[in-house]
């Protein structure tokens, strides 16, 4: 509120346009300098407008956009041509009706879409925020649209940032602000932003110079110049971006730098994606064929008219004898272009758009694609490629978060070379989360999630907070290992003797490893601690402590844990006591008890009496000590009692919520919490941690080295709370950590064996390492980025242990992949995980089967890669020759290439670099095509996109890529169809995708059912449009042979225009939206039908020409049967055309009925309305129209014709004769040559039903107990029934 500003001293120069083009200058909007005020007005306001049109610009702009479509230009040209008297075919006002109708329908659709954008803009612009007013000397409410560059804006927790602002103040004592960028880039983890350094906010009169607006979200450059001339650099961490949300920070204040459409969010808003489908490309080719056909027919008429005039002798009717035959033929050419214009389907493009909107509507509202748990349905972001879903040949899938849940569960760990398998935890996870399916995995999963999360989520929702995806409640999911609990119980006793470990009791070195292991899990992270009972912005943090001394148990000697880190009996692990420690244990205990209580008052932590926290740690530990005194063996309480205490502790600790940057990080913190090593608070310099048997410890945090893709590890530098030494805790990939540790330390060989075992089980592995620094000079933290065991400042560099985290497989993934493979779709897995993990997941999801042969490609050089690829190609070819025996070739369950049944290619990222080079990519592609599946391990995002592009371009195959994270965006955008999964890694993949789903299992319904339907519907509808247009145009063409090719008509011009535009256009639209050639249940049970549709290729050149020939045949029948029936009579032109038009209408409508597999009341109603509209229209014209179609007079023609029986006889015979061949061919084809895939699948279904019945009868007579499901036999399905063992 004490803002002051002086401008004359800072800005003695003028701001030229050249200066503004190079960079942006920002000063507070409260300036009194008129020139500076004018400068700020040059920048955009914060009002956004995403609409295309305004009231004045709509008509010209929309018309201009529609003229980009060639068909519209063509029909406008024909309408204008009809105004030329020499070539006029019918009334000019009639000629403009089709194009006006088409343009109007498209314009109405554009208006509706633009109105939706207008409403959205209006709501956003009317949002309120607090802006500083220099007149009122206070913050007042303003709409977002009224915010301008230079305004000071104050925001509170959970508020959305209205514009790009420079962070000037934060209520956080560290000057930190947390933001959530989910609305911008989809990432749900919290990001930190820092207040500008050395900022005198109370008297702000500085000048800001920064770069001009751009769309780079990761870059911001500039500086702030203070009145004394000092400049402070600005960077991306100082910038708060529009659309982000303030989290975990009570109040922030910033100055607006970019507003409105100049913000980075708006500059990155590219709108919905547009892709051209393969069907649309084929459609354009066929339109060109129709244009060629039109030109041929018009040339025929022109030549015919010229010859007719030349050979005409003594005409009995009036004719133009002054015009030469050649010129008259030229005029007739353009007249016939107008007459036969409907050969080009003007309404087809509009109909396709309407049909696709209808298809998307039904896909969007399919309950089978709805996720009730997330309240999420499928999103159709690309509106014009629905039919491509039915032509997919290759599917490229990510693993983590796509095939798996990306919800990590602590599954196993190894400490000091000793493995702790957590068997009970493994059983619960496999059973509850459907890694191996139970009877009803969906219900089981839903019940478990409700049990764990309903209370927490309910409280958060009642407070109006948005729960982050990483607010995991995984502490209850970790069942502590009894052996590890027993060893941890030693830390709770002050009197238990040390041992060398030979008698079954843990030695001091092992306990040191265990303590360091869980301490590293708790503190080596960037987790933010919060509480569901507090508002979202309340965070557990505290001020750093001036003195850090070893905490003690009240009324007892120094605890066992404290002695463990200071007695110096552990060889290389010799820890000296901290300089400030005292030998008087009682005094130290009292001081630390006082310090701990003071700390809790600062944190305002809930006590255990309130249902959470560890406020009574000392009291409970005293009880433990008393129990240990009674026990003569010194073991204290039983392991079961300790387990109960751990469970009780977990229940109380669940009041803490951890917001982590990744699910892995959250799982490790929750695992430490399950063993009573709880992270309770965080400040810039300290961490508050509870350790078993000790209570709350303040760990001095000296530096953090965050994880990056080069180091592949994260490190924290702390002062050990017990020994006082400088310690670096590191966690990261085993491939990096194991190379950095000493092989002689910490049973490295045994740990490596455990790592390999975890990878084979499909677990995600992380290594925990520790090193102790002996010199303060190494506090130059940048040296730690490349530390090695031989570093001079390291006395110890050891691996404390390793963890195995289970990434649960999503439900129904094996069934989905099996169905896709049966449908003829090749599934490739592109993942960044290590080879063993990817292979195990591939086995679990049935991508690999026990009989398949793995081909592993791992090379260190390009030459070795080339040689290995050639060798594997020969091996696959030999295997294929063996499988080409008749028994194998007749295997119905295999794909078209029999060798693809046995071989699975596995290639790592380094080798993939060589394989994708120009010289080797053909060999790699040939080998991959001969394999049933390909697994690319350790692949980068760039490699993923390169693999997809290779298959798409070289094979010309239809590709689909599915992923859930930012690393999948590139391959999603490269593929013909990109599908994003809204998972744990944010929404980047969804925002870049064509379709977005919530579960991998939805792919089967989306592709096998909706994809096949959409392709079949659109392909048949397009063929039908071409057929009906060609059929009707040919009627006009045949008539030219009897009127001297003069361009005369035997129909009312209004009927000619409206016949294809209105009377026969609605039925194919209904067909395109509602047609179901095969029921959904059948398509799901018989995925082979998807491959059969691909093989049949409904919309191919042969089918196009077959329909064109059928249209020619039907037009001949429809024209010449009435011609011969009425030959010799005195009927006029319109009377002759009446039965022809009626017959053509009936033929076209009934043709649709023959081709339809689904006839509902909607279909019948539309067909009836179409027929009734035609007959109603012609009757009205016949009754009331006298001069509607000069020079012809339709008055009384139709009423006379429809009153005669001959009219109905002609229509009936003509319709039957025209449709009989198609009806017979369709019936014979379905009877004599049914789809082989359908027959095969039906036989398999019958065989499987017979097999099930036999097994049921056998089970009734032979009951054998089933093996239990566990981690040792995961392949068995859990069931209470007994089956064959």
TrEMBL record:
Tell me the GO molecular function terms: ATP binding; ATP hydrolysis activity; glycosylceramide flippase activity; magnesium ion binding
Q: Which cofactor does it need?
A: Mg(2+)
Query: What spans are recorded as compositionally biased (Low complexity)?
Result: 570-589
Q: Where does ATP bind?
A: 398-400, 665, 707, 731, 764, 831-833, 938, 944, 967-968
Q: Which residues form the P-type ATPase C-terminal domain?
A: 990-1234
Q: Any keyword Transmembrane? A: yes
Please, which domain of life does this record's source organism belong to?
Eukaryota
Tell where it localizes.
Endoplasmic reticulum membrane; Membrane
Keyword Endoplasmic reticulum listed? The answer is yes
Q: Which PROSITE patterns match?
A: ATPASE_E1_E2
Which residues are annotated as active site? 398 (4-aspartylphosphate intermediate)
Q: What protein name does the entry list?
A: Phospholipid-transporting ATPase
- Record CDD domains: P-type_ATPase_APLT_Dnf-like
Give the reaction(s) catalysed. ATP + H2O + phospholipidSide 1 = ADP + phosphate + phospholipidSide 2; a beta-D-glucosyl-(1<->1')-N-acylsphing-4-enine(out) + ATP + H2O = a beta-D-glucosyl-(1<->1')-N-acylsphing-4-enine(in) + ADP + phosphate + H(+)
């Amino acid at each position: 509120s004490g803002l002051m500003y002086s401008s004359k001293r800072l800005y003695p120069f003028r701001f030229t346009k050249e200066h503004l083009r190079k960079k942006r200058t920002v000063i507070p909007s409260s300036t009194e300098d008129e020139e500076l005020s004018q400068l700020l007005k040059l920048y955009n306001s914060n009002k956004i407008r995403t609409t295309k049109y305004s009231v004045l610009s709509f008509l010209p702009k929309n018309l201009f956009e529609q003229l980009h479509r060639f068909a519209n230009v063509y029909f406008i040209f024909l309408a204008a041509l009809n105004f030329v008297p020499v070539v006029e075919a019918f009334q000019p006002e009639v000629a403009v009706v089709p194009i006006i109708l088409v343009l109007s329908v498209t314009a109405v659709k554009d208006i509706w879409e633009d109105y939706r954008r207008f409403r959205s803009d209006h709501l956003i612009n009317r949002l309120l925020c607090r802006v500083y007013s220099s007149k009122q000397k206070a913050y007042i409410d303003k709409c977002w649209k009224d915010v301008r560059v230079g305004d000071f804006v104050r925001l509170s927790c959970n508020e959305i940032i209205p514009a790009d602002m420079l962070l000037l103040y934060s209520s956080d004592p560290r000057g930190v602000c947390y933001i959530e960028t989910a609305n911008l880039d989809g990432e749900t983890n919290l990001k930190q932003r820092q207040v500008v350094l050395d900022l005198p906010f109370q008297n702000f009169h500085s000048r800001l110079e920064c770069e001009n607006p751009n769309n780079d979200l990761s870059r911001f450059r500039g500086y702030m110049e203070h009145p004394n001339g000092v400049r402070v650099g600005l960077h991306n961490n100082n910038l708060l971006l529009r659309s982000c949300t303030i989290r975990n920070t009570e109040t922030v204040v910033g100055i607006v730098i970019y507003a409105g459409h100049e913000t980075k969010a708006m500059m990155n808003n590219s709108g919905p994606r547009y892709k051209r489908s393969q069907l649309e490309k084929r459609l354009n080719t066929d339109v060109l064929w129709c244009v060629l056909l039109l030109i041929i027919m018009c040339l025929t008429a022109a030549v015919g008219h010229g010859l007719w005039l030349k050979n005409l002798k003594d005409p009995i009717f009036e004719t133009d004898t002054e015009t030469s035959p050649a010129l008259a033929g030229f005029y007739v050419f353009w007249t016939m272009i107008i007459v036969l214009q409907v050969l080009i389907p003007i309404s087809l493009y509009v109909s396709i758009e309407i049909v696709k909107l209808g298809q998307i509507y039904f896909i969007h509202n399919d309950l089978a694609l709805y996720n009730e748990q997330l309240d999420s349905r499928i999103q159709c972001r690309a509106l014009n490629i629905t039919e491509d879903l039915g032509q997919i040949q290759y599917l490229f899938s990510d693993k983590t978060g796509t095939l798996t849940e990306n919800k990590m569960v602590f599954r196993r760990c190894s400490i000091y070379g000793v493995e702790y398998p957590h068997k009970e935890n493994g059983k619960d996870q496999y059973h509850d989360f459907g890694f191996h399916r139970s009877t009803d995995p969906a219900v089981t999963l839903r019940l478990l999630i409700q049990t764990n999360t309903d209370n927490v989520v309910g409280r958060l929702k009642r407070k109006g907070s948005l729960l982050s995806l990483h607010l995991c409640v995984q502490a209850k999911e970790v069942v502590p290992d009894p052996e590890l609990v027993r060893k941890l119980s030693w830390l709770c006793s002050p009197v238990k003797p040390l041992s060398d470990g030979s008698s079954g009791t843990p030695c001091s070195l092992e306990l040191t490893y265990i303590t360091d292991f869980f301490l590293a899990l708790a503190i080596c992270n960037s987790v933010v601690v919060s509480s569901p009972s507090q508002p979202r912005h309340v965070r557990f943090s505290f001020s750093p402590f001036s003195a850090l001394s070893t905490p003690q148990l009240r009324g007892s000697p120094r605890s066992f844990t404290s002695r463990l880190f200071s007695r110096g009996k552990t060889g290389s692990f010799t820890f000296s006591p901290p300089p400030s420690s005292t030998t008087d244990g009682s005094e130290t205990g009292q001081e630390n008890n006082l310090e701990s209580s003071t700390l809790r008052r600062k944190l305002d932590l809930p006590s255990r009496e309130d249902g959470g926290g560890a406020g009574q740690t000392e009291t409970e530990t005293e009880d433990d000590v008393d129990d240990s005194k009674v026990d003569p063996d010194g073991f204290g309480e039983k392991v079961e009692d300790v387990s109960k205490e751990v469970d009780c502790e977990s229940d109380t600790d669940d009041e803490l919520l951890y917001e982590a940057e990744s699910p892995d990080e959250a799982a490790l913190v929750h695992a430490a919490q399950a063993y009573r090593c709880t992270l309770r608070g965080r400040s810039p310099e300290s961490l508050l941690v509870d350790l078993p048997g000790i209570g709350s410890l303040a760990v001095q945090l000296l530096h953090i080295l965050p994880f990056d893709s080069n180091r592949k590890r994260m490190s924290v530098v702390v002062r050990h709370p017990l020994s006082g030494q400088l310690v670096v805790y590191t966690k990261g990939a085993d491939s990096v950590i194991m190379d950095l540790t000493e092989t002689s330390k910490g049973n490295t060989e045994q740990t490596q064996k455990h790592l390999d075992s975890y990878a084979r089980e499909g677990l995600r592995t992380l290594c925990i390492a520790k090193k102790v620094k002996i010199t303060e000079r190494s506090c130059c933290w940048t040296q730690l980025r490349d530390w090695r065991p031989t570093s001079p400042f390291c006395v110890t560099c050891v691996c404390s242990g390793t963890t195995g985290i289970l990434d649960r497989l999503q439900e129904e993934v094996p069934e989905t992949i099996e169905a896709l493979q049966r449908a003829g779709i090749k599934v490739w897995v592109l993942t960044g995980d290590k080879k063993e993990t990817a292979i195990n997941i591939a086995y679990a999801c049935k991508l690999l089967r026990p009989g398949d042969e793995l081909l592993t490609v791992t090379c260190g050089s390009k030459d070795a890669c080339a040689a290995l690829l050639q060798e594997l190609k020969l091996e696959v070819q030999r295997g294929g020759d063996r499988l080409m025996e008749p028994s194998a070739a007749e295997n119905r369950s295999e794909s078209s290439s029999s060798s693809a049944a046995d071989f699975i290619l596995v290639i790592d990222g380094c080798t993939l670099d060589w394989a994708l080079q120009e010289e080797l990519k053909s060999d790699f592609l040939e080998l991959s095509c001969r394999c049933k599946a390909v697994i690319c391990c350790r692949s980068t995002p760039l490699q993923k996109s390169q693999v997809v592009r290779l298959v798409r371009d070289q094979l010309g195959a239809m590709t689909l890529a599915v992923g859930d994270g930012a690393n999948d965006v590139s391959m999603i955008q490269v593929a013909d169809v990109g599908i994003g999964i809204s998972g744990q890694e944010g929404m980047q993949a969804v925002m870049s995708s064509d379709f977005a789903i919530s579960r991998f299992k939805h792919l089967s319904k989306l592709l096998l059912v909706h994809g096949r339907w959409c392709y079949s519907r659109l392909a048949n509808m397009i063929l039908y449009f071409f057929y009906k247009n060609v059929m009707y145009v040919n009627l006009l063409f045949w008539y030219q042979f009897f009127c001297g090719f003069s361009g005369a008509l035997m129909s009312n011009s209004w009927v000619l225009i409206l016949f294809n535009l209105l009377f026969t256009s609605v039925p194919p639209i209904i067909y395109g939206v509602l047609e179901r050639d095969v029921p959904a249940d059948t398509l799901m049970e018989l995925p082979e039908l998807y491959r059969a549709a691909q093989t049949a290729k409904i919309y191919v050149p042969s089918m196009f020409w077959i329909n064109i020939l059928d249209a020619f045949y039907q037009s001949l029948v429809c024209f010449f049967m009435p011609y011969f029936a009425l030959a010799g009579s005195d009927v006029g032109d319109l009377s002759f055309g009446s039965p022809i038009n009626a017959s053509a209408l009936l033929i076209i409508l009934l043709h649709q009925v023959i081709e339809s597999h689904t006839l509902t009341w909607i279909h019948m109603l539309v067909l009836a309305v179409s027929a009734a509209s035609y007959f109603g229209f012609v009757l009205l014209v016949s009754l009331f129209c006298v001069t509607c179609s000069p020079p012809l007079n339709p008055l009384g023609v139709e009423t006379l014709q429809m009153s005669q029986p001959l009219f109905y006889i002609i229509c009936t015979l003509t319709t039957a004769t025209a449709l009989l061949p198609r009806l017979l061919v369709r019936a014979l084809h379905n009877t004599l040559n049914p789809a082989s895939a359908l027959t095969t699948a039906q036989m398999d279904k019958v065989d499987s039903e017979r097999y099930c019945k036999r097994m049921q009868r056998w089970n009734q007579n032979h009951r054998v107990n089933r093996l239990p499901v566990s981690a040792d036999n995961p392949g068995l399905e859990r069931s209470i029934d007994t089956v064959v063992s």
